[in-house]
Design brief:
Helix content of chain B: 40-55%
Strand order of the largest sheet of chain C: 6-7-8-3-9-10
CATH class of chain C: Alpha Beta
Bound molecules: adenosine-5'-triphosphate, magnesium ion
Largest sheet of chain B: none
Shape of chain B: elongated
CATH superfamily of chain C: P-loop containing nucleotide triphosphate hydrolases
Number of helices of chain B: 4
Distance between the termini of chain C: 22 Å
Largest sheet of chain C: 6 strands, mixed
Order of helices and strands of chain B: HHHH
Distance between the termini of chain B: 66 Å
CATH topology of chain C: Rossmann fold
Shape of chain C: globular
Structural class of chain C: alpha/beta
Structural class of chain B: mainly alpha
Number of strands of chain B: 0
Number of domains of chain C: 1
Chains: A alpha+beta, B mainly alpha, C alpha/beta
Number of strands of chain C: 10
Oligomer: heterotrimer
Mean pLDDT of chain C: 89
Chain lengths: 377, 97, 224
């Protein structure tokens, strides 16, 4: 047993010495390899933690939202629909929501205007999300002036800024009172944006939704489970520029690594001949190569993963910001909560370490079963 | 020192960091519980439905509220006008015809 | 010690370029002797030597090492015998580039899984015997021909083999270094080693200390 370990240590010594021989080339390979693992792991960690977080916090979204469609477009919801819904079994609460979008030409950003149910705001008071505060450079006590739908200028005093800790959901929110909202957008008193319904028993939600579609044929229910599913498949693995781009570079790397790992130079072949001639077994040569492959790939995996962890959970996933931000002006600043999925990490480990190691062994197999007498020539 | 010993020290250090990362993750998730709870409360109070990750257009800002007629859903795999359209899928309940 | 019994070796057997390099050689090599194989180029010396050293197998005939038949043994056993019984000195020395002199010398012992410190000391001691300890940490590609030769000898001796096999060991050396090499060979014989050398260098086969000269011609032993 001890012999076996000592033997592997010698083989590792030899492998490292031969890696050291072409130091620049091998370091370059390791660097590219690490970079690829880093990018993959970053994407993986970021999307997973975002998905988990969305799942947890959106669990508190309304059970059912009822949208009205007119000629295939969203339309305002008449207040009388609340009465037409009447009493459906299982529905504990129903209410109209008031919310919409506002384009601020000053900074060319889209805000989400909302009427909060739990705050009483004055005529000219506004509560803003931290993203807006940052973009507009305003603080509590400052004023914001917007032009309404009919051209009047509305001046608001910022009375509060929503918790920066919750920027992931409130970055672009702008809360105003109901009266101001209706006045600002010119929405009559008997209209809402949509209707939310609370259903106590989750198993009744679908039945309630069915009843709603029968009762109100021009309305469309959106269920919370659909919201959750939407965010569960957020950044779905097969989607996106990131992966297309990454896919290209991974492919390039695979070709490069394959070439590097599987192509045996005449020199290496000769070396294997020497080793066999002086008494190394075929299995020793293969094991030596196995160590080479696993050392390179394991190092790349460990470094890449650790760097990715720091990048995503301590560096606000800064590299992804330009991609996620796209054309948006307001982008939430947040450090994702570090939900790490062990299985996902194991999968990444497998797919980064295993193929490379195999690619280094296969050609050796062919080379090392040949007769060693070639070195005599 | 032998090269193999140096490698073992290096790998051991990396493994320690890896373990540390997992421990750090566990600790920070635990510590984040109140913050998550606060976010959930905000979502409940304001009856929010979406993350404010993509604010450039209404159907990306409120992904889950978009419907089959908005541009985003022209084709489930189409590259959208907006960059975020190529990052996220349309809501799954719309993808099934 | 070693017996060859009607050994034949064909290359590319069954193909149009079939070539019989060894055409029936029977030979005895005694223990603790220096045996020199000589003969013109292409006569099959290297081929015969590589079969004796278990680097290749005869096409027909038997090779016996201490009355044990080698020819039929599976690859694994051949490797083990090669490692334990034979030390090789090649014509081009065949040192592994990029490694130090010390590492090269230790290389044949790696698969044995010995403790590192004793092995290193043994290797340094061997290098010391050949005045090479100052070069222990140099890379082999910077060595002179004579130093490379001595490194190769140390490597051949690290596993303390009974039989030393050298193929044209003096081909890359001048006369003075060749004489030195033969002196080393003689010393090794005094330490109880069996040595088999091929050469067409007169310095080798006319050297006073050698015991047997075997001459080869076209794959056969020449009638001496
Ligand atoms: N792998 C091979 N395939 C075909 N022919 C071979 C092979 N190896 C050796 N030969 C042939 O076998 C013959 C004997 O070769 P060998 O190397 O044993 O000669 P040698 O006596 O050592 O010559 P030299 O003194 O030049 O080293 C040569 O004619 C050579 O061309
Ligand atoms: Mg020869």
């Amino acid at each position: 047993m001890k012999k076996l370990i000592l033997r592997q240590k010698y083989l590792i010594d030899f492998t490292l010495s031969s890696l050291k021989r072409r130091l620049a080339k091998n370091l370059g390979l390791l660097l590219v390899y690490t970079l690829i693992v880093f990018l993959l792991a970053s994407v993986m960690l970021f999307t997973h933690s975002l998905r988990r977080e969305a799942g947890i916090i959106l669990e508190s979204s309304p059970e059912i939202i009822l949208q009205r469609l007119v000629a295939g477009r969203h339309d305002l919801m008449p207040a009388e629909y609340l009465d037409r819904i009447g009493r459906i079994r299982g529905v504990t609460r129903k209410a109209g929501r008031l919310w919409g979008y506002f384009y601020d030409p000053a900074v060319q950003a889209n805000y989400t205007l909302m009427v909060p149910r739990d705050r009483d705001l004055g005529q000219q008071e506004v509560v803003i999300g931290a993203g807006i505060a940052r973009t507009r450079g305003v603080d509590v006590g400052d004023f914001l002036t917007f032009r309404s739908s009919d051209g009047r200028a509305f001046s608001f005093r910022v009375v509060d800024i929503l918790e920066a800790d919750a920027e992931l959901v409130n970055a672009d929110l702008l809360l105003v009172s109901e009266g101001t909202y209706r006045d600002f957008f010119g929405i009559p008193a008997d209209r809402f944006t949509d209707i939310v319904l609370q259903v106590r028993n989750p198993s009744e939600v679908r039945k309630v939704a069915e009843k709603l579609t029968v009762l109100l044929p021009d309305a469309r229910p959106i269920l919370r489970e659909e919201i959750l599913r939407t965010y569960d498949s957020i950044f779905s693995w097969r989607q996106g520029i990131v992966f297309v781009l990454l896919g290209g570079s991974i492919l390039a790397f695979v070709i490069f690594a394959w070439d590097k790992a599987s192509g045996l130079s005449a020199e290496e072949k000769r070396e294997i001949g020497i080793l066999k001639a002086i008494g190394w077994e075929t299995s020793d040569v293969i094991r030596m190569k196995f160590w080479e492959g696993s050392i390179v790939s394991l190092t790349a995996f460990l470094l890449g993963f650790i760097l990715a962890y720091l990048h995503v959970f301590y560096g606000q996933a800064a590299l992804f910001e330009p991609v996620l931000k796209g054309w948006a002006v307001i982008y939430p600043s947040f450090n994702p909560t570090p939900f790490v999925d062990g299985l996902q990490v194991a999968t990444l480990f497998f797919f980064t370490v295993f193929p490379y190691t195999v690619a280094t062994i296969i050609p050796i197999w062919q080379a090392s079963i040949t007769d060693p007498d070639a070195v005599m020539r | 020192m032998r090269l193999s010993d140096r490698l073992f020290i290096f790998i051991a250090a990396c493994l320690a960091l890896l373990v540390l990362a997992f421990v750090d993750a566990a600790v920070r998730v635990r510590l984040a519980e109140p913050a998550l709870e606060a976010r959930a409360t905000l979502v409940r109070q304001l009856e929010l439905t979406d993350l404010s990750l993509f604010t450039e257009a209404r159907y990306t800002r409120h992904l889950s509220q978009s419907d089959i007629h908005t541009a985003f859903q022209d084709h489930p795999n189409s590259f959208d006008h907006f960059p975020s359209g190529s990052l996220v899928l349309p809501p799954s309940h719309l993808r099934v015809p | 010690m070693i017996e060859l019994d009607d050994v034949k070796k064909a290359f590319n057997q069954g193909r149009p370029n079939e070539f019989w390099a060894i055409r029936g050689v029977s030979l005895r090599v005694d223990a603790n002797r220096i045996t020199v194989l000589k003969g013109p180029s292409g006569s099959g010396k290297t081929t015969l030597l590589s079969m004796i050293g278990c680097l290749s197998r005869p096409t027909s005939g038997r090779i016996l090492l201490r009355s044990r038949i080698l020819s039929g043994l599976p690859e694994r056993f051949l490797t083990e015998i090669r490692r334990k019984t034979f030390g090789f000195i090649f014509q081009q020395f065949n040192l592994v580039k990029g490694l130090t002199v010390l590492e090269n010398v230790m290389l044949p012992a790696y698969p044995l899984g010995l403790d590192h410190q004793p092995l290193k000391e043994a290797a340094l001691k061997l290098l010391g015997q050949f005045n090479m300890e100052s070069k222990a940490d140099s890379k082999v590609e910077w060595l002179s021909g004579g130093e490379a030769q001595r490194t190769a000898i140390c490597r051949a001796l690290i596993n303390d083999p009974e039989i030393l096999i050298a193929d044209e060991p003096t081909a890359n050396l001048d006369t003075r270094l060749s004489r030195e090499f033969m002196a080393i060979i003689r010393d090794l014989k005094q330490q109880g080693k069996t040595v088999i050398v091929t050469s067409h260098d007169p310095v080798v086969f006319e050297y006073a200390g050698i015991d047997t000269v075997v001459e080869m011609r076209d794959g056969n032993l020449a009638e001496a």
